[in-house]
Amino acid sequence: MPRIAIIPGDGIGLEVIREAVRVLEAANSVYDLDLELVHWDLGADRFLETGVTITDEEFDRLANEHDAILLGALGDPRVPGNEHARDILLGLRFKLDLYVNWRPAVLMAPRFTPLKGFEDGTRTIHLDTFRENTEGVYVNLGGSFKVGTPDEVAIQEDLNTWKGVERIIRAAFEFARAKGRGKVTLVDKANAMPAAGKLWRRAFAEVGSEFSEIEQNAMYVDAMAMDLVRRPEHYEVIVTSNLFGDILSDLAAELTGGLGMAPSANMHPGKHALYEPVHGSAPDIAGQGIANPLGAIACAGLVLGQIGCSEGAQQVDAAIRASLEKNVSTPDLGGVASTEEVGAWIAATLLESKEASTSQTDGTHG
To answer: What is the four-CA torsion angle of 11, 17, 22, 23, rounded to 10 degrees?
Structure first.
């Protein structure tokens, strides 16, 4: 019995994760998965009521008693320091050693990109960013000195280890080989950050030598940002550091329809996996029913793939594409549907696929 931890989070996280759960429940019915969806009360409301973000015991249970975690956006203006968001999200990433942050960005229809030249469908965008998720500047090494004076100093260290760099590069190459992707691009800033750059490039060359069938190149991050706008179709799999991956994957998402459509996976392959839509909690639109649930629903599809239901994952992707073709979408994508209506439509589409299959099997399809 696969057990999935459900952490809705804050703001629109509550709304979009509700629809992702609706889709998981539909898939559970269609594919007889015997899923157990375990709902967790972790977020701003609990923190404000109890002062507790997440306990060590809860970390242990999430790690050892579940096959995957589905997490909504965290962040609430009532917690200006975002202590709960940092402890929960970054805590899970670091304590579970979720060193792979995989963010796929696929252009599902030409109208969703702000770029010119895609109107006739001859150009497309399919980017898979592999972001190192446990090192870099996000480990919060450093400090401040003489704060509040004209001589104030702030130091933020960029931590890179051979182990951390080698394993994320290997994950990117293994993904490319498994998925038939023909090119892997390393992104760094080796000209301005030579110590880190040398480590990344040496690891890239060493690991890349085991994948000679895959085209390989390296780009500086500023040149890469420009080239993604100029010719995004030139790239397939991108591997990079925590900071650069955070920035470039958001750019890739915007080029393919916006953050509302973007799923992500935080993984330690073979051990733990956490899936989350990459958008924020958007408190300014929370409760209005207009939040785009497609990123969260796409995460539900990734969860299905994680537990071995590849057909279900493919059907969720197909249902998302169908909803866009029929313009069953929220206002950010030019539609008029509510968050709930989009989720209900996709769940119904999955259930209809089961009915159609049953009818064909029974010979009652006319």
So the answer is: 140
Among residues 247, 248, 252, 345, which one has the least CA distance to residue 294? 345
Q: Are 260 and 279 in contact (CB under 8 A)?
A: yes
Tokens of 242: 């925590």
Tokens coding 101: 């942050």
Most distant pair of Cα atoms in the chain: their distance: 82
Distances (CA, A) of 287 to 10, 130, 284: 11, 33, 9
Question: What pLDDT is stored for residue 353 in this prediction?
Answer: 78
Going by C-alpha positions, the residue among 86, 88, 83, 104 that lies closest to residue 8 is 88
Q: Report the chain's mean pLDDT, rounded to a whole number.
A: 95
Structural Rg of the chain based on CA atoms: 21
Choose among 269, 180, 189, 270: nearest CA to 222.
Answer: 189
**Residue in 308, 302, 312, 244 with CA at minimum distance from that of residue 277:** 302
Angle between helices 310-325 and 12-31 (to 10 degrees): 120
Burial of 297 (0-12, 13-18, 19+ CB in 10 A): buried
Report the pLDDT value the prediction gives residue 364, as an integer from 0 to 100. 46
Confidence of residue 359 (pLDDT cuts 50, 70, 90): low
